[in-house]
């Protein structure tokens, strides 16, 4: 059996005792992880990140400083969430009404990357190995390997497993960087 890596939690981080944190994960200063949140193994949770109750974070996920991960978000393995990215949790916000934010659901597919300052609206999914550009406002689902950017986010191309932009070829897409062929 291999050596079990301990969880490292900064002294100023707030991690509820009912949160589940996988081995080898590092939680940096001022991060907050609520009860019933699940964070996988070998993750990095950056400075000031908020992870709401019942959010699910896979293994090998990097969530950079000040990102906001609300209840209903599921992030699969090997994803990247950039600084100040936010998953918007209320479709019709009003200060005078009782909020029901229990129903929104988001799924971020394996290997996807969310750029710095991106906003992902309620009930919007991001496909496997997709890339959301910095500052994008994602208002509808993003398919596997798609590159989206802008406000609202629009399709700008397709990306490889390695993150490089793909070239359209006769029967699919080709990556000049890692020589992979992908049928999308």
Description of the structure:
Helix content is about 0%, strand content about 30%. The protein is built from no helices and 24 strands. With about 180 residues, it is mostly beta strands. The protein has strands spanning about 10, 15, 20, 25, 30-35, 40, 45, 50, 55, 60-65, 70, 75, 80, 85, 105-110, 115, 120, 130, 135-140, 145-150, 155-160, 165-170, 170-175, 180. It is globular, with a radius of gyration of 17 Å. The strands form five sheets. It has a nine-stranded mixed beta sheet, with no helix packed on it.
Secondary-structure map:
Elements: E1 8-9, E2 14-15, E3 20-21, E4 26-27, E5 32-33, E6 38-39, E7 44-45, E8 50-51, E9 56-57, E10 62-63, E11 68-69, E12 73-75, E13 80-81, E14 86-87, E15 106-108, E16 113-114, E17 119-120, E18 131-132, E19 137-138, E20 146-149, E21 154-158, E22 167-169, E23 172-174, E24 181-182
Number of helices: 0
Mean pLDDT: 93
- β-strand percent reads 25-35%
The CA-CA distance between the termini, in Å, is 40 Å
Largest sheet: 9 strands, mixed
Supply Rg: 17 Å
* Helix amount: under 10%
Protein structure class: mainly beta
Taken from the alpha-carbon principal axes, the silhouette is globular
Low-confidence stretches: none
User: Which strand order do you get reading across the main beta sheet?
Assistant: 1-4-7-10-13-16-18-20-21
Main features:
24 strands, 5-stranded parallel beta sheet, 184 residues, single chain, mainly beta
Can you give me a brief rundown of this structure?
With about 180 residues, the protein is mostly beta strands.
């Amino acid at each position: 059996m291999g050596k079990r890596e301990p969880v490292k939690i900064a002294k100023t981080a707030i991690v509820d005792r009912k949160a589940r944190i996988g081995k080898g994960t590092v939680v940096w200063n001022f991060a907050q992880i609520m009860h019933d949140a699940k964070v996988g193994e070998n993750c990095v949770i950056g400075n000031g990140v908020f992870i709401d109750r019942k959010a699910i974070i896979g293994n090998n996920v990097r969530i950079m400083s000040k990102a906001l991960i609300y209840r209903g978000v599921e992030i699969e393995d090997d994803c990247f969430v950039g600084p100040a990215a936010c998953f918007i949790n209320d479709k019709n916000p009003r200060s005078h009404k009782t909020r029901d934010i229990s129903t929104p659901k988001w799924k971020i597919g394996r290997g996807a990357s969310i750029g710095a300052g991106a906003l992902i609206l309620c009930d919007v999914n991001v496909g496997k190995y997709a890339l959301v550009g910095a500052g994008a406002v994602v208002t509808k689902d993003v398919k596997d390997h798609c590159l989206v950017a802008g406000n609202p986010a629009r399709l700008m191309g397709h990306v490889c497993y390695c993150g490089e932009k793909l070239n359209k070829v006769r029967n699919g897409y080709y990556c000049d960087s890692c020589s992979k062929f992908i049928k999308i």
